[in-house]
Amino acid sequence: MSETPTIVLVHGAFADGASWAPVTLRLLDQGYKVLVPPVFNRSLSGDSAYIKSFVEQIDGPVILAGHSYGGAVITVAGVADNVVGLVYVSGYALEEGESLGQLQGGFPDSELAANLAYSPYPIESGEPGTDVSVNIDAFPAVFAAGVNTDKAKVLAVSQRPLSAIAFGEPASVAAWKTKPGWGIVSSADRTINPDVERFGYTRAGLRKVIEIDAPHLVMQTHSAEVATFITDAIAELG
User: Fold this and answer.
1) Is 55 inside any structural domain?
2) Which of 71, 180, 189, 193 yields a CA-CA distance of 20 to 30 A from 215?
């Protein structure tokens, strides 16, 4: 590839762009162009449309890396013409027509399921929506296991909820059918059953899958390995 792709890092539910911070810094220090857009966590279709639009305004090729729910987002947004590769990090590689709930439903629940909180949010027309978040007390152990205790406390109270709508909304397309992909399984994940990650990656026929003995926020605890995995994927593109 004559032009080095811009790396777009897509965060997941119950987090924001800061969840990628250690990886972002490593990639910037290596001279890569990196962008970390917000994901609003309102719906899979809306979030994917936003990221796709964001990507399409970048000059040149783009490699998308999605963490957790961000994996579902890049599965749909990755059909943008200038996307040249997909990197899943503890993520959902959905099939076309499949929802998060359907993919998860085929496997035993992780610890997250018993530690969720639900709250209404207003919608201008119609019934209120429902926001889903991680119980603050459980957040450090379940979602931010392995992360510095003080940082985990901050992440817990600044988490970005996910609309319940997103769990049941099917993916309109699966970009991995036409774009090369790579995947990281967090084998000590307590937020997503690691078998969900393994199954999705195998079904998608990703070029390379590695397992790291890491928690869900592997970008925080193993930033060097994640950054290297992304840059290795770029190298494979030639």
Assistant:
1) yes
2) 180
Can you say whether the dihedral through the CA atoms of 159, 165, 167, 173 is positive or negative? Answer: negative
Angle, CA 98 vertex, CA 94 and CA 104 arms, to 5°: 70
Contact criterion met (CB below 8 Å) for 87 and 63? yes
- Whether 213 is in a domain gets the answer yes
pLDDT in tens, 39-50: 999 999 999 999
Residue 125 lies in a domain: no
Closest CA to 233 of 10, 55, 62: 62
Q: Is residue 133 part of a domain?
A: no
How many CA atoms within 13 Å lie on the side-chain side of 182?
20
- Domain range enclosing 82: 6-110+168-236
